[in-house]
Amino acid sequence: MSVHTLVIAFLxxxxxxxxxxxxxxxxxxxxxxxxxxxxRSAQQKKKTLTSKSADISRRTGLNKSQQATxxxxxxxxxxxxxxxxxxxxxxxxxxxxxxxxxxxxxxxRLGKLKERVQNxxxxxxxxxxxxxxxxxxxxxxxxxxxxxxxGSEIRKALAExxxxxxxxxxxxxxxxxxxxxxxxxxxxxxxxxxxxxEWEQLSKSITRRRRQSAAKKRSNAQTVKSANDKSKKKDDK
Length: 237
Fold this sequence. Notes:
Elements: H1 3-22, H2 31-60, H3 64-77, H4 81-91, H5 93-115, H6 119-145, H7 148-188, H8 192-236
Helix pairs in contact: 1-4, 1-6, 3-5, 4-5, 5-6, 6-7
């Protein structure tokens, strides 16, 4: 999620929690009326479930399975996002749809890394995603509270992310250095001596092929001549 969306989600969640807490002071409703209201609510939910699910799929561009995968990814790797997503789904559906798409994209990208057996890179990229998500949520909270302790936690998370990125860049530099060494070796091999040797091999190969072709033509001509001579002798008899 973006920090802006998380600020909104956090405020929506907190507002919803306060509202839910306030409703506990309402006058109790009788059991019969409660049962009637629950039955009516259940019937209404059942009636609209299919159409609502189809509408969400259309808006997110994801089917039910993909949406479930995105939410499961959030639950497994940053559980704090889930109640915020639920709040967005109820009150700010466009933001919810966008965030679910982003979660699915992250899940798919990381899943492909894992499938290619790039375990070290997968673990690092997953750790970076977790830190990114945690930092954004902490920033959203900090933007409301300006809490110094939370600010220190954000700085610590930023340092963790930087350490992972540093390790990734160092590994990439080592890979590039190895590649550079190989290319420099190939470059040093491109000498005049190598050029002369290559030309000698090519010219010999062409000369040999021409000789073989000429010998084959002579052999074919001799075979034809012998066949013609035999045929002529038969005709003379």
